[in-house]
Design goal:
InterPro entries: F-box-like_dom_sf, F-box_dom, F-box_LRR-repeat, Leu-rich_rpt_Cys-con_subtyp, LRR_dom_sf. Helices cover 43% and strands 12% of the residues. Helix 2 runs antiparallel to helix 3.
Length: 226
Protein backbone atom coordinates (compact mmCIF):
# COMPACT_ATOMS: atom_id res chain seq x y z
CA UNK A 1 0.00 0.00 0.00
CA UNK A 2 1.30 3.45 -0.92
CA UNK A 3 1.27 6.15 1.74
CA UNK A 4 -1.19 8.25 -0.29
CA UNK A 5 -3.75 5.45 -0.04
CA UNK A 6 -4.10 6.04 3.70
CA UNK A 7 -7.10 8.06 4.81
CA UNK A 8 -6.83 11.61 6.13
CA UNK A 9 -6.94 10.61 9.79
CA UNK A 10 -4.08 8.13 9.37
CA UNK A 11 -1.98 10.66 7.47
CA UNK A 12 -2.49 13.30 10.16
CA UNK A 13 -1.42 10.77 12.78
CA UNK A 14 1.67 9.91 10.73
CA UNK A 15 2.60 13.57 10.26
CA UNK A 16 2.22 14.20 14.00
CA UNK A 17 5.37 12.12 14.69
CA UNK A 18 7.53 14.24 12.36
CA UNK A 19 9.35 17.49 13.09
CA UNK A 20 8.58 20.65 11.13
CA UNK A 21 11.27 20.14 8.50
CA UNK A 22 10.32 16.51 7.88
CA UNK A 23 6.67 17.47 7.51
CA UNK A 24 7.58 20.13 4.97
CA UNK A 25 9.80 17.78 2.97
CA UNK A 26 7.12 15.10 2.88
CA UNK A 27 4.51 17.65 1.81
CA UNK A 28 6.60 18.48 -1.25
CA UNK A 29 6.17 14.99 -2.68
CA UNK A 30 2.52 15.23 -3.76
CA UNK A 31 -0.59 17.39 -3.59
CA UNK A 32 -2.43 15.10 -1.17
CA UNK A 33 0.37 15.23 1.40
CA UNK A 34 0.59 19.00 0.98
CA UNK A 35 -3.08 19.22 1.94
CA UNK A 36 -2.35 17.23 5.09
CA UNK A 37 0.57 19.55 5.90
CA UNK A 38 -1.80 22.52 5.59
CA UNK A 39 -4.45 21.03 7.86
CA UNK A 40 -4.73 23.29 10.95
CA UNK A 41 -5.41 20.25 13.14
CA UNK A 42 -1.79 19.22 12.68
CA UNK A 43 -0.47 22.40 14.30
CA UNK A 44 -1.66 22.44 17.90
CA UNK A 45 1.92 22.45 19.25
CA UNK A 46 4.95 24.41 18.03
CA UNK A 47 8.49 24.45 19.45
CA UNK A 48 11.26 26.71 18.17
CA UNK A 49 14.91 26.68 19.16
CA UNK A 50 16.05 29.87 17.42
CA UNK A 51 14.46 33.11 16.21
CA UNK A 52 15.76 32.19 12.76
CA UNK A 53 13.30 29.28 12.69
CA UNK A 54 10.44 31.76 12.89
CA UNK A 55 11.19 32.87 9.33
CA UNK A 56 10.85 29.41 7.82
CA UNK A 57 7.73 28.29 5.98
CA UNK A 58 7.76 24.84 7.57
CA UNK A 59 4.83 25.42 9.94
CA UNK A 60 1.30 26.79 9.99
CA UNK A 61 -0.21 29.27 12.43
CA UNK A 62 -3.93 28.98 13.07
CA UNK A 63 -6.75 28.69 15.61
CA UNK A 64 -5.73 25.11 16.41
CA UNK A 65 -2.45 26.21 18.02
CA UNK A 66 -2.66 25.61 21.77
CA UNK A 67 0.96 25.39 22.95
CA UNK A 68 3.89 27.51 21.78
CA UNK A 69 7.49 27.68 22.99
CA UNK A 70 10.54 29.60 21.80
CA UNK A 71 13.56 28.43 23.78
CA UNK A 72 16.82 29.82 22.52
CA UNK A 73 19.81 28.05 24.08
CA UNK A 74 22.76 29.50 22.19
CA UNK A 75 25.94 31.38 22.93
CA UNK A 76 24.52 34.22 20.87
CA UNK A 77 21.72 34.69 23.35
CA UNK A 78 24.27 36.35 25.62
CA UNK A 79 24.42 39.30 23.23
CA UNK A 80 20.70 39.97 23.43
CA UNK A 81 20.80 39.71 27.23
CA UNK A 82 23.51 42.34 27.64
CA UNK A 83 22.26 45.63 29.05
CA UNK A 84 21.41 47.99 26.18
CA UNK A 85 23.72 50.69 27.45
CA UNK A 86 26.67 48.27 27.29
CA UNK A 87 26.16 47.12 23.68
CA UNK A 88 28.29 48.40 20.84
CA UNK A 89 26.72 49.39 17.51
CA UNK A 90 27.26 45.94 15.96
CA UNK A 91 25.58 44.20 18.89
CA UNK A 92 22.66 46.62 18.83
CA UNK A 93 22.11 45.97 15.13
CA UNK A 94 22.33 42.22 15.71
CA UNK A 95 19.72 42.35 18.46
CA UNK A 96 17.44 44.68 16.49
CA UNK A 97 17.12 42.12 13.72
CA UNK A 98 16.14 39.44 16.21
CA UNK A 99 13.73 41.80 17.93
CA UNK A 100 11.89 42.50 14.68
CA UNK A 101 11.76 38.79 13.82
CA UNK A 102 10.28 37.80 17.17
CA UNK A 103 7.88 40.75 17.49
CA UNK A 104 6.53 40.18 13.97
CA UNK A 105 6.04 36.49 14.69
CA UNK A 106 4.25 37.14 17.98
CA UNK A 107 2.02 39.66 16.23
CA UNK A 108 1.03 36.90 13.81
CA UNK A 109 0.27 34.66 16.78
CA UNK A 110 -1.97 37.38 18.22
CA UNK A 111 -3.90 37.65 14.96
CA UNK A 112 -4.16 33.96 14.09
CA UNK A 113 -4.07 31.95 17.32
CA UNK A 114 -6.83 33.14 19.65
CA UNK A 115 -7.07 29.74 21.37
CA UNK A 116 -3.48 29.66 22.64
CA UNK A 117 -3.30 28.01 26.07
CA UNK A 118 0.40 28.12 26.94
CA UNK A 119 3.37 30.23 25.94
CA UNK A 120 7.00 29.65 26.95
CA UNK A 121 9.76 32.10 26.04
CA UNK A 122 13.28 31.32 27.22
CA UNK A 123 16.38 33.34 26.40
CA UNK A 124 14.36 35.79 24.32
CA UNK A 125 16.10 38.99 25.35
CA UNK A 126 14.33 40.88 22.56
CA UNK A 127 10.74 40.24 23.74
CA UNK A 128 9.15 43.43 25.04
CA UNK A 129 6.32 44.25 27.43
CA UNK A 130 4.21 45.37 24.48
CA UNK A 131 4.49 41.92 22.85
CA UNK A 132 3.20 40.23 26.00
CA UNK A 133 0.45 42.83 26.41
CA UNK A 134 -0.86 42.18 22.90
CA UNK A 135 -0.74 38.42 23.46
CA UNK A 136 -2.72 38.68 26.68
CA UNK A 137 -5.32 40.85 24.97
CA UNK A 138 -5.68 38.66 21.88
CA UNK A 139 -5.35 35.23 23.50
CA UNK A 140 -7.96 35.35 26.27
CA UNK A 141 -7.72 31.61 27.00
CA UNK A 142 -4.02 31.71 27.88
CA UNK A 143 -3.51 29.69 31.05
CA UNK A 144 0.27 29.41 31.29
CA UNK A 145 2.85 32.11 30.61
CA UNK A 146 6.47 31.16 31.30
CA UNK A 147 9.19 33.73 30.73
CA UNK A 148 12.83 32.94 31.46
CA UNK A 149 15.81 35.22 30.96
CA UNK A 150 13.71 37.78 29.07
CA UNK A 151 15.59 40.89 30.15
CA UNK A 152 13.25 43.48 28.63
CA UNK A 153 10.28 42.25 30.60
CA UNK A 154 9.39 44.69 33.36
CA UNK A 155 6.56 45.44 35.77
CA UNK A 156 4.49 46.58 32.77
CA UNK A 157 4.07 42.91 31.88
CA UNK A 158 3.04 42.13 35.45
CA UNK A 159 0.49 44.94 35.31
CA UNK A 160 -0.83 43.58 32.00
CA UNK A 161 -1.33 40.21 33.70
CA UNK A 162 -3.51 41.79 36.37
CA UNK A 163 -5.60 43.58 33.72
CA UNK A 164 -5.87 41.04 30.92
CA UNK A 165 -4.83 37.67 32.34
CA UNK A 166 -8.24 36.52 33.52
CA UNK A 167 -7.62 32.91 32.44
CA UNK A 168 -4.00 32.78 33.55
CA UNK A 169 -3.17 30.17 36.18
CA UNK A 170 0.63 29.91 35.90
CA UNK A 171 3.09 32.79 35.58
CA UNK A 172 6.88 32.37 35.61
CA UNK A 173 9.25 35.32 35.30
CA UNK A 174 12.51 33.56 36.14
CA UNK A 175 15.76 35.46 35.60
CA UNK A 176 13.80 38.50 34.38
CA UNK A 177 15.95 40.99 36.22
CA UNK A 178 13.86 44.07 35.44
CA UNK A 179 10.76 43.04 37.35
CA UNK A 180 10.56 44.28 40.93
CA UNK A 181 9.32 42.90 44.21
CA UNK A 182 6.61 45.56 44.18
CA UNK A 183 5.36 44.33 40.82
CA UNK A 184 5.33 40.73 42.01
CA UNK A 185 3.45 41.64 45.19
CA UNK A 186 0.87 43.46 43.06
CA UNK A 187 0.24 40.29 41.06
CA UNK A 188 -0.08 38.21 44.23
CA UNK A 189 -2.55 40.70 45.68
CA UNK A 190 -4.77 41.16 42.62
CA UNK A 191 -4.51 37.63 41.16
CA UNK A 192 -4.23 35.22 44.11
CA UNK A 193 -5.28 32.25 41.93
CA UNK A 194 -2.15 32.56 39.77
CA UNK A 195 0.78 30.28 40.62
CA UNK A 196 3.58 32.85 40.49
CA UNK A 197 7.28 32.00 40.30
CA UNK A 198 10.14 34.46 39.97
CA UNK A 199 13.47 32.76 40.56
CA UNK A 200 16.48 35.07 40.43
CA UNK A 201 14.45 38.01 39.18
CA UNK A 202 13.58 40.97 41.38
CA UNK A 203 16.83 40.87 43.34
CA UNK A 204 19.05 40.92 40.26
CA UNK A 205 20.77 44.05 38.94
CA UNK A 206 18.31 46.12 36.87
CA UNK A 207 18.95 46.80 33.20
CA UNK A 208 20.09 50.40 33.74
CA UNK A 209 23.25 52.44 33.91
CA UNK A 210 25.33 51.96 37.07
CA UNK A 211 24.51 55.38 38.50
CA UNK A 212 20.80 54.53 38.45
CA UNK A 213 21.01 51.13 40.12
CA UNK A 214 20.97 52.38 43.70
CA UNK A 215 18.10 54.76 42.95
CA UNK A 216 15.96 51.97 41.48
CA UNK A 217 16.69 49.62 44.34
CA UNK A 218 15.65 52.25 46.90
CA UNK A 219 12.48 53.03 44.97
CA UNK A 220 11.60 49.33 44.86
CA UNK A 221 12.02 49.01 48.64
CA UNK A 222 9.73 52.00 49.23
CA UNK A 223 7.03 50.53 47.01
CA UNK A 224 7.15 47.24 48.87
CA UNK A 225 6.75 49.08 52.18
CA UNK A 226 3.70 50.89 50.82
Amino acid sequence: MHITQLNRECLLHLFSFLDKNSRKNLAKTCHKLLEVFQDPLLWSLLNFHSPVELKKDNFLLGPALKHLSICWYSERVKVCNIEDWMKNSFQKDFCKRHENTVSDFLLDVCNRCPNLLSLTLSGCGHVTDDCILQLLKNCPHLKSLKLENCVRITDHTLQAVTLHGASLRTLHVDFCRNVTQAGLERVREKCPSIMLRAEKSANMIPDSKPEKKLMLQKASRKLVQL
